[in-house]
Amino acid sequence: MLSDEAPSHSEPQIYESKKTANKKRNKTLFILIVLIIFLVANNFIIYNWYHRAKHQYKDTFLRVQSISEENVNLQAFNETLKSDYALLMENYSKVLKQYEEILKQLEELKAKNEDLERANSELVNDNIELQNSLKKAASVGIKPQSYTEFNGISTRSAIDRGEYIGKFLGTAYTPCTEECGNNKGITNSGKPIIPGVSIAVDKNYWPFGTVFYIKGLGYAVAMDTGSAIKGKYRFDFAVFDKNFAKQLGTNYWDVYLVKLGNGKVEDISL
Predict the structure, then answer these.
(1) Do 258 and 160 touch, CB atoms closer than 8 A?
(2) Which of 131, 208, 256, 261 could form a disulfide with 218 if both were Cys (CB 3.0 to 4.6 A apart)?
(3) pTM for the full model?
């Protein structure tokens, strides 16, 4: 009897042991699953972090590489600027030296110009004196009834020749009865003749009062006419001495127009 009851008494214990084992196994399995899930999630997080870090590192590397390239380019540009600056300084030195040479040349030219101005002033004065001498010589001889004695040209800083108008055929005449039909000495303009200044012209081309500069004779004023004085390029120079007139003869003279007259001979100041 005892042997038959013993197995029935141990069955609940075996069942309880199995149940406990199952719980432990399930708990272990649950912990294992949770651990696996944690590890998977952790690995996923680590992978995403690694992936982001990799891209960030790549961007940072590219930026560093770009900055490095820019730095190389800047250094090359800086070297170019240094070379250009050195070239500019060299050119500046050359220009400065040329400028100093030009200043020196300008000073030399200024000094030469002053010398030329002094020489020109002397020549002008010599020209005026020669004209005055010529006009005094022209007033020597048989004088007509009326005439104006020329007092001379005052000293000036320059000779105003005016505009060159060409070569004129020039002769000389005296205000005597043989040449003018009378010895009154009154020109066709109505004014008294001025030896060495008055000239006869064709008034169809040159109105009375026109001032000329005749190279070799000096200033002259259109005041008279003559039957033989025809054409634009013709004049007759008034003097008092027949021998002087013959000495001047018939020649071509360079003539300049100083001032065109208005048909009247007014106050003459040369």
Answers:
(1) yes
(2) 131
(3) 0.61
